[in-house]
Amino acid sequence: MADSPADRRLRLPGKVSLIIPVYNESENMPRVIPAARATLTELSDSFEIVLVDDGSTDATVAVARSEMGEQREHLRVVSHARKSGYGITVADGLRAAQGDWVAFVDGDGQFDPRDFRLLAERAEGADLVAGWRIHRADPWHRTVVSATFNLLVRLLYGISYRDLDCGFKLMRRELLAAASPILSRSALLNTELYFKSQRCGFVVRQVGITHHPRLAGVRSGGRLIPILRAVRELVRLRLELARSWHPPTAAASR
Fold first, then answer.
1. In the chain, at which residue ranges do the beta strands (DSSP E only) sit?
2. Which of 1, 18, 52, 74 fits a disulfide with 78 by CB distance 3.0 to 4.6 angstroms?
3. Whole-number Å distance between alpha carbons of 187 and 227
4. Which residues of the chain have pLDDT under 70?
5. What domains are there in the chain, each with its CATH number?
6. Which residues are CB-contacts of 228 (< 8 A; sequence separation ≥ 6)?
7. Using CA atoms, how far apart are residues 124 and 213, in angstroms rounded to an integer?
């Protein structure tokens, strides 16, 4: 039976790479991995999951491999000898990705990989499709921190997208190539992608998605020292971008 027009819109041309950064998320892998591989099978004829293990001390990698079942050959693992942090972990996954479309989602289960269907529906004619959390399922203080962070980014970087630090994105290979090298070593990687996309003239779309409470594992982020470090990084990265990064010639002519 032929695909319906709606089904064809959901199919992404070429190979899709999904990066999943993880640190001690063995309890969440039985939910995240099956949802990810089922969705990728629906979205593309060719896909890979790049699991970036940030020095986990539990069985995260073993559980992820087990949850891939007969599709285990579609899983690649990038391992850190010690914990390096979110930005480095996602950036290592982006560098390892081989797809024509590259996506990433946090491995803590607070985003449902099945929502990549919502991003795929908006992908035609776009270079970056990003999620924003309709309602953040976190303690109130993290919502306050996020709002403050977004305000500072708008002031310093001149970009006005919603929920800038949301780790749920789908992008074309061409955008990733233009944005490379990734300079941020923290969660500001998301801000950097938005900033470079805007400067290069790429088409960016955003889609509201559901954010779920963390059901297992240990929450990271939201502590005072990392927050202060992020503010310092916010200023440092903006200065570094002004000094050392300019849109590639091909992107600048878009």
1. 16-22, 47-53, 75-79, 101-105, 128-133, 168-172, 204-209
2. 52
3. 11
4. 1-9, 138-143, 217-228, 250-254
5. 12-244 (3.90.550.10)
6. none
7. 31
Q: Structure tokens of 223?
A: 């502590």
**Model-level pTM?**
0.88
Residue 147: phi, psi to the nearest 5? -65, -40
Contact 107, 21 (CB under 8 A): yes
Question: Which residue in 25, 34, 107 sits closest to 68, CA to CA?
Answer: 34
- Reading the block at residue 69, the tokens are 């079942």
SS3 (DSSP) at 97: coil
Q: How many whole angstroms from its chain centre is CA 144?
A: 22
CA distance 65 to 71: 9
